[in-house]
Amino acid sequence: MFVNAHSVRRILVYDLDGKFKRSFKHKEGTMYSSIYNFGRENLICHDSFYTIDGIANELSFRIISKQDGSIIKEIQIPLIPNLDHWILVEPSSDTVYRYLPDYTMTPLITRIVKKINYYRMKNKLIVSALLL
C-alpha cells in the first residue's frame, strides 16, 4: 500500500497487514498531490508544486518507480484515469489517446474529416471541412 504524506513530501510503503516497509521522497522541487497505481512497477503522480512566484511546474505528471521513487517518465500532457488505463487529453489535438502501463499509446477518439470542399473567391482558396 502506498500512502502519500503530502505535507512532508514522502511516499510511505506498507504491506497489506499495515507493517511499514520503506519510504521515499518526492523528487526535489515537486509536491505530489495525488498518486495512482500504474501497473506492477510504477505509480503516476500529479505534481501540484508552485514556485514562490505562483508559477506551476510545466511537467504536471510523472511516472515513478514503486521501489525507490525514481522518475521513469515525465508527461506534459494532462492525464485522466479510466478503468485499467489512462487517457492523454490535449484539447488542441484531433486525437485522444489511451496510455497503457507498457507506455504504448493507442487512439481512442479521432476526429475524422468526411468531406472537403474547395471554393475560389477573388483569387483566394477557401477550404471548408465537414467534421464527424
Give the helix/strand layout.
Layout: E1 2-5, E2 10-14, E3 20-25, E4 32-38, E5 42-47, E6 61-65, E7 71-75, E8 79-82, E9 85-88, E10 95-99, E11 105-110, E12 113-121, E13 124-131
Antiparallel strand pairs: 1-2, 2-3, 4-5, 5-6, 6-7, 8-9, 9-10, 10-11, 12-13
What does this entry show, briefly?
With 132 residues, this protein is mostly beta strands.
> Number of DSSP helices?
0
Q: How does the major sheet shape up?
A: 4 strands, antiparallel
Strand content: over 45%
Distance between the termini: 44 Å
Secondary-structure element pattern, one letter each = EEEEEEEEEEEEE
Mean pLDDT metric: 77
In words, what does this structure look like?
The chain has 132 residues and is an all-beta fold. The chain is built from no helices and 13 strands. It has strands at 2-5, 10-14, 20-25, 32-38, 42-47, 61-65, 71-75, 79-82, 85-88, 95-99, 105-110, 113-121, 124-131. The protein has a 4-stranded antiparallel β-sheet, with no helix packed on it. It starts with a strand and ends with a strand.
Keywords:
four-stranded antiparallel β-sheet; disordered C terminus; mainly beta; 132 residues
